[in-house]
Automatic annotation (TrEMBL), chains A, B, C, D:
Top-rank taxon: Bacteria
Keywords: Hydrolase
Pfam families, A to Z: Cyclase
SUPFAM superfamilies the UniProt entry points to: Putative cyclase (SSF102198)
Protein name in UniProt: Cyclase family protein
Alphabetized Gene3D superfamilies for the sequence: Putative cyclase
GO molecular function: hydrolase activity
Amino acid sequence: MVPEPNNWGRFGPDDQRGTLNLLNGPAVLSALRAAVTGQVVSLATPIGRKGPHLRGRPLPQHYMSIDGADFAAGARPVGAGLRMADDALIVSPHGTTTHMDALCHMWCGEELYNGHPAGEVRSYGAKKCGIDQVGGVVARGVLFDVPRHLGVDHLPAAHRISAAELAAIADVGPGDVAVIRTGWPLVWGRSPEEYWSGQPGLSAAAGRWLAERDVAVVAADNAAVGGLNSRQLADEDLEDDLHLILLHRHGIHLAEMLWLEELAAAGRTDFVFVAAPLRLQGGTASPLNPLAIL
Amino acid sequence: MVPEPNNWGRFGPDDQRGTLNLLNGPAVLSALRAAVTGQVVSLATPIGRKGPHLRGRPLPQHYMSIDGADFAAGARPVGAGLRMADDALIVSPHGTTTHMDALCHMWCGEELYNGHPAGEVRSYGAKKCGIDQVGGVVARGVLFDVPRHLGVDHLPAAHRISAAELAAIADVGPGDVAVIRTGWPLVWGRSPEEYWSGQPGLSAAAGRWLAERDVAVVAADNAAVGGLNSRQLADEDLEDDLHLILLHRHGIHLAEMLWLEELAAAGRTDFVFVAAPLRLQGGTASPLNPLAIL
Amino acid sequence: MVPEPNNWGRFGPDDQRGTLNLLNGPAVLSALRAAVTGQVVSLATPIGRKGPHLRGRPLPQHYMSIDGADFAAGARPVGAGLRMADDALIVSPHGTTTHMDALCHMWCGEELYNGHPAGEVRSYGAKKCGIDQVGGVVARGVLFDVPRHLGVDHLPAAHRISAAELAAIADVGPGDVAVIRTGWPLVWGRSPEEYWSGQPGLSAAAGRWLAERDVAVVAADNAAVGGLNSRQLADEDLEDDLHLILLHRHGIHLAEMLWLEELAAAGRTDFVFVAAPLRLQGGTASPLNPLAIL
Amino acid sequence: MVPEPNNWGRFGPDDQRGTLNLLNGPAVLSALRAAVTGQVVSLATPIGRKGPHLRGRPLPQHYMSIDGADFAAGARPVGAGLRMADDALIVSPHGTTTHMDALCHMWCGEELYNGHPAGEVRSYGAKKCGIDQVGGVVARGVLFDVPRHLGVDHLPAAHRISAAELAAIADVGPGDVAVIRTGWPLVWGRSPEEYWSGQPGLSAAAGRWLAERDVAVVAADNAAVGGLNSRQLADEDLEDDLHLILLHRHGIHLAEMLWLEELAAAGRTDFVFVAAPLRLQGGTASPLNPLAIL
């Protein structure tokens, strides 16, 4: 079997949307002009078993199949003396680490985004709208640092960011990546229990404001883009659910659980945002190491 | 626990090397100027159980914990009607999929690159030189399309690329990413057995030629940068082993098992190369979706 | 949540069948009388990555999260000096190791054994007929050593065991465990390729002969109780498929990939057969270490 | 590769101990005489993500690779119409589910039980004292129902069972399995937090009392045979640690996290105890479904 041709650098053919042309070559060239100093900042939390995560989720597991300690204890090198370490990772991205959602991750009714039958998302992968369809994202990133705007370290759990709050911070346009900072990951450091008590996030109106501006991706440092209550669920009804507004109705990819503290400290609103989700066939998400080029 | 600060966008402090400054801001800005059309091409094979891989390796496993078929069969939606798909990935990157090696992946003697004690690479992760130390790579990529240079579809299994062959194709400088095409993944499509019969790769002299030019990363479409024999092992002795020359002695990260066919078809030698390995703490590798911005 | 009461020692209430009373107390006491010498023999192959398995299946993976080599290399003991090894196992039992099939493993049409809707076997487990419903099996085992009967080391790949061959070896009655030896695992040792070339197994007529005798379990040393062709599939049509005859229509549990060489060497036809599948909720199978008490 | 011969039904040759002869044939025959009614009771909790477990451990994960819902949603049957469900289990037995410890699980100093070098317990398995060495256990079980003896539903977290308490309940002899009930799993049902607040268990003196009687296995319903404090650690020093007394110094296998409520309700002190740990090569433990034949 030959791997499928990768004619990417765009959202895949299954999932075309109005903004597709914004991610074509000229749009990418334009986005690259947002780089000023060239500093590259990772927007990911380390993948381990101690980082911020939603309660009850299966945490990443990382195992060595051979390592340096084995050789220290007498394991025989390969051939003339090569030694190596090898490992395995088990990861369920949603709620456990920095990741991007595929368009097949959430829906209501019988259809995914763009009318694809939801019943084709099966145990062996999603036939349509899998994370492998994303390719790569190279776009202008725009940071909405809401706590800084409001003069707080982080938003309180019950805060739902309004469209007006976004509009007061920056503007954003077609094909951009809206990067939403709530500061909530800072809470993890002082108390996982407090982290789990709820989460701030976008209001439905703010979600619609972003969708109207035709952004390509919404990337946030909270766990669900929208807010969560103490049971780790969204309070909105189906009409106002942030995943349904953005992912399901507009085909806007979501990236969640980013670590935005270095980016925020840099004080830059515009930058180049790069995300290269793993090409996991039919996956509902990919763990991610988003980069900001300042 | 607060996640460690991410002061990245560079090779980590544990693993500093001579070229570090080449990946600082001005070098990144310079690299970005290699973008001409803005087309973004993924250099990864899809992650599944059918792609090219070394024989005997544990292949990626991808499982849904809930999916659209479950709802089609009557699973109860969440809350007012939300439906979702969630999944888990098990992956051992070496030999199974497009990935980047960490500096802790291979060594000889008792020390890793830069003198770190190999015994600190343990079952629970590498204390030094883990893949989480890479951050992100944004650099100029230079394609060495060796089969094209030689007028063949792909190199034969026994071919070891000479320094002269590289020099005849392109030049490469400090901080660049040398992208080596052998065409060997094309063989997988007609016969896994032939794919496993051996692999073409860099000669030791070619590896030294690249190291002398102080490249930041060597990225290849074969499984081990160097060649492999029919037992899937390198034939070189310790002095000439490609992993030891590049990774162990010079701290040059390796990316392997790339899919370079679209990139090769584009006919561009220079481009922007972006790689954002997962921040897996103490990992020996990361599955990867490298991007070329043309 | 309190674990469900375990009122077991019988096939579970969801899956009651005619022979249930044969596994009640008096039947168990009667079965125990088959023990003569008290020698206990394991009927399982070791779980590793090198044992007999069907081609293409995900093999068991076993990883240490901490081990003795880590301490040898300097890991800090717990408390005053405790040292420990801990590990994880990833296993897909079918086709990879000695296991027992649950009644939800195979069916045709829309219903499992006993009319349970097949759509309730979902990504998060089988609501009915899961392996956790088995409890434990303590019954009389009867060995059908077909190669010995025919004077060969092992049956050839194309051999389909007839009802007459079974009848010529031994009789078996309600609630017994019919243990079928083909000797095929011996082939693995000389050639995995030959092991994969096909497999001997029961004919449909032999399956019906066992079902008529109302056995509780059929346990075999091949991979599928019935035979396999070179594509590792059964040749029978739906009417004659061994899994459908035994598991689907009669609710007879199947155990597969046993290692019967020590048992065969002991020369005993009757013994106590004990199987204690893991209580994996809604699982389709369990890896198994069946015991024969001679 | 031929699987190693299984000349088992006894503790393996690496791990011979004084009581080995007690598990030979005559001892097994004698143990079988403890069966009176023939009722078989499972002593395992269901394996899922909701059962009693120690905080912070990686919980069992169970995934279907194909299931009935996939067929309900349109998946194509195999061949003429076969449908099947297949699954994978990821399990780290210690602290998560009913399991048996291997002799390589815990030690102090540089040696395992019987003087085997601890450095040979490596990332790829334990060369000595792995769980695959156990074979199967068929022995007389003796229930020490301590809460019943004391007239309480379950022991309080701080209770350490004394030798006198054991002696007042029953006697136990060479080769027997001492089954210790604390009732602590009942606490899980009303509050995981309370379950995690500490655990009752054997005192060091009680452990020595059992070792002196030369039992083959100690099987308990708490997580560590000994008690735990609120940090889920043992309070004893190395001399008095229960794992070191029993497992390390005397080679007595431990089974933990059993579900003993049905057994206790049956009111029987003596019974046949059967345990058949998976033959996981070099494993530190096996998930287990112990059976009591009453």
